[in-house]
Amino acid sequence: MKFEWKKQEKEIYGTNTKPCVIDVSSQKYIIISGEGNPNDEIFSDKVAALFSVAYKIKITYKSFE
Question: How far apart are CA 65 and CA 60, in angstroms?
Answer without folding.
Answer: 9
